[in-house]
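_Backbone structure tokens_
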Amino acid sequence: MKTSRESGNRVNKIAKDIFTIPNAITLAGGILAWRGSKELNNPCGLSKAALGRLLDTIDGPVSRFTGQTSDVGAALDAITDKIVTAKILYEMKEQKVAPELVIGTIALLNGSNSIATGIANLRSEEKGKTRPTKSGKLAMAGETFTLIAYAGAHVAEHANNPKLAKFLRGLGATAFIASLPPAAHSLYTYAKQALGKNTVPERIPPTGAERSLRLMGALNKFNKCG
């Protein structure tokens, strides 16, 4: 009887970790970006891809705000991100949307990070709990902006707007260069984890509730001073 109850609780916990708002956002973003990547030469496809990648950046904050953080959600986010990024890079290469150097570098960095993270997870006592570093998140944001800017330039070229295309390509190149330092730091951190070397754990960002409590505390102190 006890075993049956424990089994039921385990199933409920797994279901609770799977069917969450952040996971729904992750999947919706992945599907949109996947579909949009197939038609990057028109505004509709670009909009889908951009919205999909935007959703991928907010699932983490939403999970912390709602208190729905879980290992399942983190794994789903990481896997979806790698698959969708690979798809976008492939389509951009096929459609000649961005320079091959940019596409190849981003693909190499993402692939190296995936390998290092996988090794770190296998070596860790807590399987599958390696989280993205802050530098990794910054690099991903820069890479996403890079790809969207180049895709926008591609659309502008098809719309016979060379000035806008040139401007967007410049933005893309700038974002790409800016993303390299955090990407290199992120890869270095993951490599250290994969080699089993100690790394200083990054501070977990406060949840929405924690921020509210801190703000209330600060306001109370301000009122007392007044």
Q: What stands out?
A: DSSP finds eight helices and no strands in the chain. Residues 2-198 form a domain with the Four Helix Bundle (Hemerythrin (Met), subunit A) fold (CATH 1.20.120). Residues 153 and 165 are 4 Å apart (CA to CA). The radius of gyration is 21 Å.
